[in-house]
Design a protein that fits this description.
By secondary structure, the chain is mainly β. It has 2 domains: 87 residues, SH3 type barrels, CATH 2.30.30; 184 residues, Porin. Helix content is 13%, strand content 63%. Strand 1 and strand 2 form a beta hairpin.
Length: 277
């Protein structure tokens, strides 16, 4: 029984100390002065000794004192309030797991793009350092349409007359590894801007070439710039919905033997779940 009482006393000791720190002794003198601190010695009806927060010690006779009270320590209360405000200001700080899907218009082309349906989807890992700045990484899968148009030769007697032309249609798929910077404004609901790079490794491609002269079969690792811009909406305590616009443009070419560029512009739909509660 004795051990249990000692254990309970140890558990309650921190709260008692904190409660004491939130209150202070206040001595009101008859000359109008006010001394705040902790009474360290008191002789009833004779004198008292009080120590202030800067560790100065004052001794007063009781005939100098108008009254003695206990009052809340405003400095500690202010510090506590500041800590609470700081905590609320960093409500977005932490690690998030998310998913996105981006349907849109896409094209892999040499000169003039012909846009057809394409999409990007994947898993996102976001780290917010505070309410406004973070970084994003993840894995994404992308499907882009291929459209090339070729002109072959000219009539030797009429240099401006084309002999023939044909188009190449198909698609290319790739897996990407993005790294982006996150800029965010707002509290529960806000706007985000996420510029960055994505490194796409080609998986497969399929193209229809009626003249069997298509040579763009050697796919390359593609580096692209990507931008997300939109709104983030708090759906629950730890979940956010994301809606916005997405733009992908390749900085390097898709095929080793052709100056091919890729483009995707679409609607970004996703969600984020905060892992550290």
């Amino acid at each position: 029984m004795k051990n249990i009482l000692i254990f309970l006393a140890i558990l309650t000791l921190p709260s008692v100390i904190i409660a004491q720190n939130n209150w202070q002794d206040v001595v009101y003198l008859k000359n109008g002065s006010i001394i705040r601190g902790m009474i360290v010695e008191q002789i009833p009806n004779v004198s008292l000794k009080i120590q202030t927060t800067d560790r100065s010690i004052f001794v007063f006779n009781f005939n100098e004192i108008a009254k003695i009270t206990k009052e809340e320590n405003l400095l500690n209360s202010t510090n506590q309030m500041s800590r609470e405000i700081q905590k609320k200001q960093n409500i977005h700080k932490g690690l998030y797991l998310g998913f996105h899907v981006i349907p849109g218009a896409s094209s892999v082309y040499i000169q003039d793009p012909i846009f057809k349906a394409g999409f990007n989807s994947g898993v996102d890992f976001d780290v917010y350092f505070n309410d406004h700045i973070g970084i994003e990484a993840g894995v994404s899968f992308q499907y882009l349409n291929i459209y090339y148009y070729y002109d072959y030769g000219y009539d030797p007697n009429h240099l401006l007359v084309k002999i023939k032309g044909h188009s190449i249609n198909g698609y290319i798929t790739s897996v990407g590894f993005p790294i982006k910077v996150i800029f965010r404004i707002g509290n529960k609901h806000g706007f985000f801007f996420e510029p960055g790079l994505n490194f796409y490794h080609p998986l497969s491609n399929k193209a229809e070439d009626p003249y069997n002269s298509y040579s763009g079969t050697q796919m390359k690792l593609v580096i692209s710039e990507e931008i997300n811009l939109g709104m983030m909406i708090k759906a629950s305590k730890h979940t956010y919905l994301k809606f916005g616009l997405f733009e992908h443009y390749s900085l390097t070419k898709y095929f080793a033997d052709e100056n091919s560029k890729g483009f995707l512009f679409g609607l970004n739909i996703g969600f984020l779940y905060k892992l550290n509660q």
